[in-house]
Description:
71% helix, Serine Threonine Protein Phosphatase 5, Tetratricopeptide repeat, disordered N terminus, 253 residues
Amino acid sequence: MKKLLIFAVALGSMIQLKAQNTDSNGQSADEIIYQAYLNQKYDAAPWKEAIKIRETDLNKNSQEIKLRFQLALSQFALVSSSMRNRDEDLFDEYYNPLLKNLKKIIEGDKNWAEPYAIQAAAYGVKMGYSPMQGMILGSKSTNLIEKAKKLNPSSAIVWKVYANAKFFTPEMWGGDLDEAIAGYEKAVQLFESRPETLINNWMYLDTMAFLGQAWAKKGDRAKAIAAYERALKAEPNFSWVKYVLLPKAKSLK
């Protein structure tokens, strides 16, 4: 059940909504999170800075639901990144504010698919820290994903969350490697169908990284390498793929 929730770690900002403010170096929240993801280093500071930028934007217009969703995505990115070093204090600091924001977003638009998907992924992280929560949150997470798929079957973020769930969940609990691969491929296709969303989109890269891992797990070395090389073509500085995943795949017999 512990694996059930790690699917959330990979999940993040897939709908590229631009922040209005920047940090002292002129970087937007999207840019800050993207660079933090590329470096694959455990440092909460960039994620926190991105959240501050989002909060500043939202404070200028507290009724703007898209700005609140931007904030929720940044909060989720930090909640997810806390798993890298099992920083439960950091998780506890941002988990409830994230859920509160998602609740407000859903209350404002019950037909918006992505907030349901992010909520499902957030539950996943919670279960990663507290596996016993899986008895309650596991089914809730699954139901949220299915609801999101019905609301918007053309959402890359929804398909990414779905694929992660199928990839990390044990087969006896509903995991399915073939469905995970299909979900990742669908998500990549949907991301690429909207080129304007690919700038600073770490979720797009993450989807290809996990597609490669899914193919590797299935035993298809060539397709795993192809997925990793595709990710590096999109972002040559993607350190996780460049220095870890691709060399590992090439070493497989």
